[in-house]
Every structure is written in C-alpha cells, then in structure tokens.
Design goal:
The complex is a heterodimer of chains A (322) and B (442).
Chain A (H helix, E strand, L loop, with lengths): L1 H36 L6 H19 L6 H34 L5 H26 L4 E2 L4 H4 L1 E4 L4 E4 H23 L1 H11 L1 H6 L4 H27 L1 E2 L5 H14 L4 H25 L9 H15 L14
Antiparallel strand pairs in A: 1-4, 2-3
Helix pairs in contact in A: 1-6, 1-7, 1-9, 1-10, 1-11, 2-3, 2-4, 2-9, 2-10, 3-4, 3-9, 6-7, 6-9, 7-9, 10-11, 10-12, 11-12
Chain B lengths: L1 H17 L3 H16 L4 H22 L3 H15 L5 H22 L1 H26 L7 H15 L18 H24 L4 H21 L22 H10 L7 H26 L2 H11 L1 H6 L4 H27 L9 H14 L4 H29 L13 H15 L8 H9 L1
The chains are: A mainly alpha (322), B mainly alpha (442).
C-alpha cells in the first residue's frame, strides 16, 4: 500500500496545488472585505459562481468564432472578472451600504443580509439560465488548445495545459494584487480603511469609494477564479459556489483573516490537505470511506484552527476593544 | 367606523355561507385588515374578530380554500398584538381557532391539516432558534443539523434500520417515540456542546461559519453512512418509521363524537401533539426569558464585554443557549420523523436552516409571537402560495421554459425576506420590546 501511496504522491501534490490556487483567489475576496468591514461576505461564493457561469457562456457562444483557445480564455477571464466585480459592487451598494449608513451596531444584521444576498444571487442566476437555456446544470465546452497535456518527471505527474494555465494566471493575479495593495495609492487607502475607517476618512480618504473598490477587486479575483474553476472542473450550476466558498473562507481563517498573504498561504495549504485526504482516505480505509469525506476534512480543519490557533497561521492576536 | 367594520364582517359571513371559495376569502382578508387597523373600541374589535373567526371557519369548512387559513393566522396575530382586548377574549378566541376551526377545516381539506402540522413543527423550531439567535444573539446557520440528529435518532431505532448494526427486536414499538423524544434532547444537546465548545470561544461571526459547516457535515454523514456499516441508509433515506399507537386517542375522539377515518386520525393526533409541543416550548421560552439565564443572554447579546465585566461567564452561558436551541430542534425532529414515517438527507439542507432563520427574522428576533407568525407565514408561502402561483404561471404562460417555475425559487423568496427585513425592518414584524429599542438606538 505504501508503494501505491508514494507512486501517486507527486500527482496528488500537483492536483492539490491547482485546487489550492482556486481557494487562494477566492479566499482573498473574503479576507479583503473582512479587513475593511469586519463582515463575512457570504455572497462572495456566489460572485465566484457568477464568474464560473460567465466562463461557461463565453465558451458556449464564442468558441466557434474564436479559434484560438488562449484568446478565448482571455476573453472569458476578462468578462468573468468584470461581471463578477460589477455584481460585487452592486451587492455592496444596495445591500451592505444601507446598513452601514443606518449605523447598526448589531453584528448579526450584516451577516444575515449577506446570507440573504447569497440566496438571491443563486436563484437569480438559475432564473436567467432557466429563461435562456431552460437548463441550469451547465457544462464547460472543451476547447482543443486547452485540453492538451504532457508528462513531467518521467511520467510522475500528468499535467493538463489548462491546469498549467490556471496556476500561471492565479500566480500573476496574486503578484498583481500584492503589488496593488503594497505599492499603489489605492492599496495604501485600502489598508488605511482596514486599520481604522474613521481616521482614514479624516485623512481625506472616501471610505465608501474605497470599500466599493475593495469589493471590485475581491469580486474580480473571485470571478477570474470562477472561470478557471469552470475550465478545470467543467461542471457548473448556480449552487456550485457554496462549498468552494465555505472552504475558501476556511482558508482565509487558516491564514489569518484580514491578512492578504495569509489568505494565499491558507488557500494553498487547504488545497493540499483536502486533495490529500480526498485521494488517500479511500486507499487507507480500503474504500470504506470515500472521497465524499473530503468536505468533512475541510470543516474539521476549520474547527481545529479555531481551537488551537484562532488568529491563523500568519495573523496577529487582536484584543477586542470596548 | 365601527358600523362599517361590522357591516363588512357580516357581509363576509354571508359571502362565506353563500359563495365560499377564494374570492370571498379575499374579501374576508380585506375585512380583517380593516378590523385590525381601523379605530375601533376594544369591545367592538373583539366582537368583530369573533365574527371573522366564525366566517373564516365556515368558509374553510364549505370550500377548503387555504386562504381561509391565512385569515385565521391573521386573527391570531391580531389577538396577540392589538392592545386592550380583554384577556379572556384573546384566550377563548385563540383556543377556538386552534382547537376547533383548524380541525374543522382539516376535515374539509386534509391539506390544511398537513399545513397546520408543518407550521407547528417549524414554529417550535423557530422558537428554539429564537433562544439562540434572538435572545443570545448567536447566529446559528446549521440549525437543521440538530433537527436531523433528532429525526435520525428515532428513524434508525423506530424502523428496521437498526438491525444492520445491532442485535435485537427492531423496529421498536411506536410507544418508544415518547422515550426517544427525551433521548433526542440529550443527543442533540451533546452535539450542540461538542460544536459549541470550540466555536463559541470566538467572536460571533465564526460561529456562523462553523455551524454552516456543521450543517453540511451532518448532511454528508447522513448521505454516506450507508457503508461500511449501513446506519443511515444513505440518500434513499429510512422508511417506514414507526408512529405511536393511537387507539386510546381514537376512543377518546369517538367519545367526543369526532368522526375520524384512516387518514385524518393520525393527522389530528399529530396536529394536537404539535400544538402541545408548541405550548411547552412557549412555556419554556417565557420562563427562560425571565430567568437569570435569559437576562444573561440578553446582556451578552447587547454587549459581550460589559456582560463579562458584570461577572457573567461567557462560554457556559452561550453554550447553554446553544444547547437549549439544539434540544428543541431535536425533539421536533423525532416528531417529524414519526409524522412523515420517512426520513432522508434532503430534508436537512442549508435551505432548511435558512428557512427557519428567515422565520425568526421575519417575526422579530427574540419575539415569541413573532417566531410563530414567521413560521406560519413562510410555511404557507412556501407550501401553498408559491405552488398556487406556480400553477397560475404554468396555465397562463405555457410558452415559458419549464425551468422557470416559481415553486422552485424558494431561495429567492427567502433571500429577499432576509435582505428586505434587514434593510427596512430589522426588528421584525412583531418586535420584542428590548430588541426594538436596540435597533432604534443605532
């Protein structure tokens, strides 16, 4: 059995990396919004789902017109990111901002709103797809350019072109985001608002605008992740965002919520752990416990971190202030 | 004004007799609204409400139209919320509606019994969640998980399912259901303890996501624990689950002169059982709210740090709220399993948890009549109005794609309920006094 485990280990690590990058990109959306608003934006999993659905639709309609698969993917990524980002802005504008303006101190109110928004978005997408195609279980169209594959390390790892693209695009996005947050004026403003919203507004920063931008950035990242997710795992429906969403949030907590490098790290670690258990659990238990339990693993990890290291891997302990 | 209300209600009574059905019921609902909101003296209002109760009951008995049930619920709300109605009128009319009107309607249209039972089960659960969310301010998004634990506790032992892993004489006879209601309290409270212990140490938001995860874990377990040992029978679910024997109940009803047949006997029994449970749950709720724990929960909800400074132990107090809510849900799970005689993982999705949350939010967090009203409103909306609307859409717009069927869009409806309530009326339809003050102060 050990031999079997070792022989597929490189492949397991690679697949975990692919999954981890998806989680990392989604986790960033959670962590950034949490940073500025201290709100778990449950609707973010639906922003991700919208990206995936846009990806499917772009491939469905443009694949015959655009012969180059990479160009097609670029269009899908741009459109997916834009539509998801726009949705995130709208959600903030019409659901969260009215609450902020009223100045509710009750912490449950924004959380419940976020859950409600998440449900509304799921069924709106279902309604649109229902009117459009009378079908809401979607399949990503395969494009030849992206379906190629090659072996690495003498056949130890089987790499699909699309997985490689996924990794490269996510890395580029993560580097870009790090630059944006650390080196640009907008990044400074976001960090200022995250640290202290009131003081930031005294320094000439318009918090509403910055919060809106934060939703745009997080939403676009989520949308891009959605397109890549659809490309990689091919089946998409309006409810597909829920599990990756919860897991990405777990990743954000794992890395230390509010902490941007933490979210990336958390995503990668969670991707590895989940894929590891998902693959090896059936082997280790002789098939008595199947891959289905990989979702349970993610939640157990969440509970364990909350018990042992609630501030996350890279987070700092924050005392609650009066 | 008083004369107009009286005339309207008499008119509706006549309509209910002459032309029972949806249209006359709509007229009745209008009359009810006028009675509730017009300036009437308390006595005139009590008289008019009694008149309306009679008329709605008559209409239900003659037509079985479910709009009448909405009317009855409306009267109950009016009775609990309107000021200055004498207490004996409130009690008498309320009991008449619950014990006479609804069963009479149920005999005319068994779907109304079904609705009544579902409303009751959901109301009891909403009251349980009300302790967690409303009183203690802990957002529990996996409440259906406890419901599932309760339901499976009885379903496994009240059917042949337990034979798969235990020696013994299964299914257990139906009387054991009452014992299992007690066992479910213990198992769900322990589940609540195990989940709450890590999650409640942290800030409230984490609890939301951990309970969300828990809900999912319980569903996954229910779906997959059919191998290596078949405990839950997986996605097919468990059936038939034993119901308690009701010979004594049948005899009693025969003595009282209530005609029962093979379907209505269990429906009436479960309806009354659920009513009894709601009564108990309300009693526990009221007592808790006024107890040391209830005050501690409210203190924690309003300001954790201040509460801690006053010497309230945070973790045990929160845990107690969490476990109380879980236990309520577990008991109702047992009744649910017995009433349906069928249990499957599909009943315990995130949607179910959010539905119950929506009921609490709609009625008003912390408010006992609110939770019951929320349960009635959302259950009727979900099981009756959306379905009727669906039928209407299907017959009037046959060219619409089949996927665009309003009955399938419960999530949209519940999501809208949550968001709109949070933006426009966060204290709920029947706000609890202290909660309203808290929301307004902000």
């Amino acid at each position: 059995m050990l031999e079997q485990i070792l022989s597929i280990l490189p492949q397991v690590i690679f697949d975990g990396l692919v999954l981890g990058f998806v989680y990392a990109m989604v986790a960033l959306g959670y962590t950034m919004v949490y940073g500025v608003l201290e709100l778990i934006n449950f609707a973010h999993s639906e922003i991700f789902m919208i990206g995936a659905v846009v990806g499917v639709e772009v491939f469905r309609y443009l694949a015959p017109q655009v012969p180059n698969g990479f160009l097609l993917l670029l269009i899908a990524l741009l459109l997916g990111g834009a539509i998801a980002g726009a949705t995130a802005i709208l959600v903030e504008r019409f659901a969260y901002r009215p609450l902020r303006k009223r100045g509710t101190t009750n912490r449950l109110v924004p959380l419940i709103t976020a859950i409600g928004v998440s449900f509304i978005l799921q069924d709106l997408v279902r309604l649109i797809e229902g009117l459009w195609h009378n079908e809401f279980f979607l399949r990503m169209r395969t494009v030849e350019d992206l379906e190629g594959s090659f072996d690495l390390f003498g056949g130890a790892i089987f790499v699909q072109t699309k997985s490689l693209v996924l990794i490269l695009v996510s890395m580029a996005m993560l580097v870009g985001l790090t630059y944006l947050v650390n080196r640009t004026k907008l990044g400074v403003a976001i960090r200022a608002v995250a640290q202290d919203l009131q003081t930031a507004s005294l320094m000439g920063i318009d918090p509403d605008r910055i919060i809106s931008r934060t939703f745009l950035i997080g939403g676009s990242l989520g949308g891009v992740a959605g397109v890549l997710f659809a490309l990689q795992y091919t089946t998409v429906n309006p409810y597909v965002g829920f599990l990756p969403g919860v897991k990405a949030f777990t990743a954000a907590v794992l890395g230390g919520i509010g902490n941007i490098p933490g979210a990336m790290l958390g995503g990668l670690v969670l991707g590895q752990l989940e894929n590891f258990f998902g693959t090896y659990l059936p082997i280790l238990t002789n098939g008595n416990f199947g891959t289905e339990y990989k979702d349970v693993v993610a939640f157990l990890i969440l509970i364990l971190i909350l018990l042992l290291r609630p501030q996350g891997l890279l987070g700092q302990v924050v005392k609650e202030k009066v | 004004m008083s004369a107009l209300a009286f005339a309207l209600n008499l008119g509706y009574l006549a309509l209910a007799f002459l032309a029972p059905g949806a249209l006359s019921n709509l007229f009745g609902l209008g009359a009810l609204l006028y009675t509730a909101f017009a300036r009437l003296s308390p006595n005139a209002r009590a008289l008019n409400l009694a008149l309306l109760t009679l008329a709605f009951t008559l209409n239900l008995q003659r037509s079985g139209n479910t709009l009448g049930l909405i009317g009855l619920v409306g009267i109950l709300v009016a009775l609990t919320t309107l000021p200055k109605i004498p207490t004996w009128v409130r009690a008498l009319l309320g009991l008449a509606i619950l014990l006479l009107s609804v069963p009479i309607a149920g005999f005319a249209n068994t779907f109304i019994f079904e609705l009544g039972i579902q409303i009751g089960i959901y109301a009891a659960m909403a009251l349980g969640l009300n302790v967690v969310v409303g009183m203690a301010g802990l957002l529990d998004l996996g409440y259906a998980a406890f419901f599932a634990v309760g339901a499976y506790t009885w379903a496994i032992f009240g059917s042949e399912q337990a034979k798969n892993f235990l020696q013994g004489n299964f299914p257990l006879p139906g009387e054991y259901m009452y014992l299992f209601m007690g066992i479910a309290i213990v198992t769900t409270a322990i589940t609540g303890l195990l989940i709450g212990l890590p999650a409640l140490r942290l800030r409230g938001d984490y609890l939301a996501i951990v309970t969300l995860g828990l809900g999912e874990v319980v569903r996954i377990l229910a779906n997959n624990l059919d191998h290596p040992i078949n405990i839950t029978n997986g996605p097919q679910g468990i059936t038939p689950v034993q119901r308690p024997p009701i010979d004594g109940f049948r005899n009693l009803m025969a003595h009282l002169g209530v005609p029962l047949d093979r379907t209505t006997d269990y429906q009436l029994f479960f309806y009354l059982l659920v009513l009894l449970m709601i009564g108990l749950v309300v009693l526990v709720n009221v007592n808790l709210a006024n107890s040391r724990f209830g005050r501690a929960w409210v203190a924690i909800r309003e300001d954790e740090i201040a509460a801690r400074s006053m010497g309230i132990p945070l973790l045990p107090t929160k845990l107690l709220a969490f476990m109380t809510g879980a236990a309520f849900s577990g008991v109702m799970g047992v009744i649910f399993a017995a009433q349906r005689t069928f249990v499957s993982p599909e009943s315990f999705t995130l949607l179910a948890s959010i539905t119950i949350l929506g009921m609490v939010i709609l009625g008003g967090m912390g408010s006992i009549p609110g939770a019951i009203l929320g349960a009635a409103a959302l259950t009727i909306l979900n099981l009756d109005i959306l379905k009727t609307f669906s039928e209407f859409v299907r017959t009037s717009f046959p060219q619409l794609p089949s996927q665009v069927d309003p009955a399938k869009y419960e999530r949209l409806v519940f999501g809208l309920v949550l968001v709109l309530m949070m933006i426009f009326r966060p204290e709920g339809l029947i706000p609890e006094r202290r909660h309203r003050a808290e929301m307004e102060e902000a």
